[in-house]
Amino acid sequence: MSEQNTAPLSAEDEARLAGAKKRVGRSAVIGAIFLMATSAIGPGFITQTATFTAQMGAAFAFAILVSVIIDIAVQLNVWRMITSSGKRAGELANSAIPFSGHVIAVLVIVGGLAFNIGNIAGGGLGLNALLGVDPKLGGLLTGALAIIIFLIKRAGRVMDVVLVVLGVGMIVMTVIVTVVAQPPVGDALRQTIIPDDIDFATITTIVGGTVGGYITYSGAHRYLDSGHTGPEHAGPVMRAAANGILVTGIMRYVLFLAILGVVASGVTLDLSGQAANPAGQAFGAVLGDAGLRIFGAIFWAAALSSVIGAAYTSASFLSGFHRRFLGGWSLQWATVGFIVVSLIVYLLIGTAPAAILVFVGGFNGLILPIGLTVFMYIGWFRRDLLGTRRYPLVLLIAGTLVTALTWYMGVVSIGPIFAFLGIGA
Fold first, then answer.
1. In this predicted model, what pLDDT tens digit does every residue of 304-358 receive, in sequence order?
2. Among 70, 86, 35, 45, which Cα is nearest to 244's?
3. What contacts 242, CB < 8 A, 6 or more positions away?
4. Which tens digit of pLDDT belongs to each residue from 163-197?
5. Closest by alpha carbon to 317, among 113, 70, 75?
6. Which of 135, 203, 279, 280 has an alpha carbon within 20 to 30 A of 378's alpha carbon?
7. What share of the chain in percent tops pLDDT 90?
8. pLDDT at position 398, please?
9. Angle 50-252-275 (CA atoms, 0-180°, nearest 5)?
10. Contact between 214 and 40 (Cβ < 8 Å)
């Protein structure tokens, strides 16, 4: 028996095993790209885009361009460092600067809580557009259903399939609205480069909503599951990250053009009411009541998925404090507790759901530069943790410039961002 167990595999078995590993790796890579893309284009980003486009018009195009540039510098550095080291963000940070990983974990958890309050608010807005129910009741139903789906694994797999279908539907609807609304593309292109107005609070908010909080690390952590770690896999890692950024960048701009076309036609969007859903109103203005309800279904499903994803990813950072949270029931109950706390806070605060969705992006934009600073330190001074002494200088320079920019934007944007909730100036 011992000889049979240690006998070399046949060529056919080796080929089959290699094929299985390749499929698992490819699935993890696709999952990493999809996770980053879906995290970056959630209910928060959709509402932020509609709100700021209504306020700023074509000048908001510049904010989108800056967000994409920041996205590129952040994700390429974070993906490369995490996958080269083979360590998750908190572990890698602690290896470079003691307890810095714990700081990042706290920031991600706090930022994730803010994200999840916004996601539940988005679920309330989605059900309001779909069924006309009160946003608070819609948020309650969304939070409760998220817990059920998370605990029932089979339901989660069904939800994944539904989300893919609805995600495609969202893209198709957005393109249709863009074509029908006929936005001023020329003016949008001009102001992408030379804006009439620059608002740093807006840029900080849209950056935080697309690459802040747990989103910064979610795709890279998922890529670790592919097993393709180490500096020798840097090329495929860069291509995967670039593909995810490309998908989200295009979708951001198309959504912006769709809303801009509606606003430019003279439609006024309600931005402050308790049931205000600026993006839903824009889609309804072009596609009618049926379009509004379809949008509501897609928006609600995206919010529901984001509630689960943000809670699970944020709770997983608790493993930096105790290894019991690496998996199993401890992590499951922590995730459920995360959703429950988010739901309670949402039900208690009186701020309109749309305002919450805008604020959480800004909040995560404020804490983004702290984690980036640690990663830039690793890139400049602790390359030994990355398994190589060589690291692209252009990435380090780009990452450092973006880190400095996010610090500056955060400092000048604190007041306006908290003003979204009626706090500060």
1. 878 887 887 788 787 667 666 555 667 778 888 889 999 999 998 877 778 888 8
2. 35
3. 72, 76
4. 667 667 777 888 888 898 899 999 999 999 999 98
5. 113
6. 203
7. 26
8. 95
9. 25
10. no
Among 72, 76, 68, 75, smallest CA distance to 49 is for: 68
Structure tokens at 183: 């936005």
* HEC readout, the chain: CHHHHHCCCCHHHHHHHHHHHHHHHHHHHHHHHHHHHHHHCCHHHHHHHHHHHHHHHHHHHHHHHHHHHHHHHHHHHHHHHHHHHCCCHHHHHHHHCCCHHHHHHHHHHHHHHHHHHHHHHHHHHHHHHHHCCCHHHHHHHHHHHHHHHHHCHHHHHHHHHHHHHHHHHHHHHHHHHHHHHCCCHHHHHHHHHCCCCCCHHHHHHHHHHHHCCCHHHHHHHHHHCCCCCCHHHHHHHHHHHHHHHHHHHHHHHHHHHHHHHHHHCCCCCCCCCCCCCHHHHHHHHHHHHHHHHHHHHHHHHHHHHHHHHHHHHHHHHHHHCCHHHHCHHHHHHHHHHHHHHHHHHHHHCCCCHHHHHHHHHHHHHHHHHHHHHHHHHHHHHCHHHHCCCCCCHHHHHHHHHHHHHHHHHHHHHHHHHHHCCCCCC
The rounded distance, in Å, linking the Cα atoms of 153 and 402 is 39
Report residue 75: phi and psi, to 5°.
-70, -40
Tokens 């080929």, residue located? 15
Report residue 394 as tokens.
């252009």
Rounded Cα distance, 298 and 18, in Å: 39
Q: What is the CA radius of gyration of the chain?
A: 22
Q: CB within 8 A of 364, min separation 6: which ones?
A: 111, 114, 115, 208, 209, 212, 213, 215
Tokens of 103: 């700081």
